[in-house]
Amino acid sequence: MAQFQIEQFLNEQKQAVEAALSRYIARLRGPETLKKAMAYSLEAGGKRIRPLLLLSTVQALGQNPGIGLPVACAIEMIHTYSLIHDDLPSMDNDDLRRGKPTNHKVFGEAMAILAGDGLLTYAFQLIAEINDERVPPAIRVQLITQLAKAAGPEGMVAGQVADMEGEGKTLALAELEYIHRHKTGKMLQYSVHAGALLGGANAAQMQELDAFAAHLGLAFQIRDDILDIEGTEEKIGKRVGSDRENNKATYPGLLSLAGAKEKLAFHIDAAKHHLQQAGIDGAVLAYICELVAVRDH
Amino acid sequence: MAQFQIEQFLNEQKQAVEAALSRYIARLRGPETLKKAMAYSLEAGGKRIRPLLLLSTVQALGQNPGIGLPVACAIEMIHTYSLIHDDLPSMDNDDLRRGKPTNHKVFGEAMAILAGDGLLTYAFQLIAEINDERVPPAIRVQLITQLAKAAGPEGMVAGQVADMEGEGKTLALAELEYIHRHKTGKMLQYSVHAGALLGGANAAQMQELDAFAAHLGLAFQIRDDILDIEGTEEKIGKRVGSDRENNKATYPGLLSLAGAKEKLAFHIDAAKHHLQQAGIDGAVLAYICELVAVRDH
Lengths: 297, 297
Description:
2 copies of one chain form a homodimer. Chain A is mainly alpha-helical. The first copy, chain A, has a single domain, classed as Farnesyl Diphosphate Synthase. In chain A, about 75% of the residues lie in helices and about 0% in strands. Chain A contains 14 helices and 2 strands. In chain A, strands 1-2 form a two-stranded antiparallel ribbon. The mean pLDDT of chain A is about 95. The interface between A and B is large, with 51 and 50 residues.
């Protein structure tokens, strides 16, 4: 695939995800304010990296990415709920997210908590009620089990707790990696894993794709830490330098900026290596690797 | 079944649920504080009415209630998460729940939010990963779809939003019933419905059991409102009279105390009628009806 075709594919998939997210909220019979609060954060944009990873993995395995759309939306809903709750005054107390006022700034704290709860719950419904013979119940229960593990008290929620408990402390690299493997890594890995399940990957391909996703996830977080130093507020849509102000452990802080960049390059290379080993049509996934390595927001 | 046998059955099932809840938390590999915060509210007691409704429905259909244990625990986890989030300072701002300090009073607001998120997510995992040939994937996805509908933005979360938006307003009876049908009714109904699914109810039995649960749910809420006037703080474990202080619409407020009691009796009778129509071994479920009608906490 030529680069312009890859970009076109990603653009189309991103639009498909955003249209589906809007449809899923619109069809709900519930209080209008709740629907607005849920839609507000879902529509606040972002790169949609998780849904795109899932859909690109399905495509790389030669299947129609459309079969992954409900799960892609479920992942984005869970990611969005986690941002809403993380931004709350009792958590990170952030006023801005992706350049817009955070959910509780617009709808109030109580509604923001409930909008998050609603998105989290609805995500599981979307997968359970998939009405597509290519995704039978036996696959759906696997998708749900693994999503709950990635997002729940052994996954993202554990990472958030570890992050909170680590604030103001001097962390070793292993502790920092625990936080990131759980807080962001598990959901990124799940995105690829779910795509592999839906695309019908065999055991060997699954193993390589899981390893690909693990390295990509760490690369993603290292780049995030680097951006907090090098990025501009305008581009990343939130305050720059907030990690240092909040006394948060970061890769550049532990390894120096040059050391962090080296580690970033290592993980990107390792991710690409495993992708190649999977023996699939990995052009789009390799392109996403590049995006993560050089992203400026 | 004689009354002492019914009470013994309910006691045994309650203990089975509480033991299983503890096991489910103990097996988690995650931060200890998170596990403690989740366990704290799960172990805070309560009547376990939802799990008992589920297990008693399975029993009433002649099946082994043990097959319902994971779903019963999932329901209790979702009920518990909703209490933790409802009690938060930005929501009802309650310091006491079941006679004990609320979760955020013990673990702080951020951890309470995350403990709730963890319980909600874990609940879906418990159902998805049921390892029992009597509960095949096709039943599990139905159980998950319906649980998400009962708990999510068309169910309990919608009820919570409507409740919040109704505060300080004069509500019509229809609005009050909307709140209760969603905030507490849907999860009570789900408990019976899930038990009926697991117990293999036929379509006619399902319809009667759904109607039974709808009336029971309204009765439950009316009794709750009456208790807020007539109960003692010691027995119900939270402040009495808080509804009036918070200017909340209640059944006694709209119908007078005598009118509310009449409505309670009507719904209890209707619930029993539908139970009888189901043509099952409904002795335990009828006993639960009585408990709801006369409960003092």
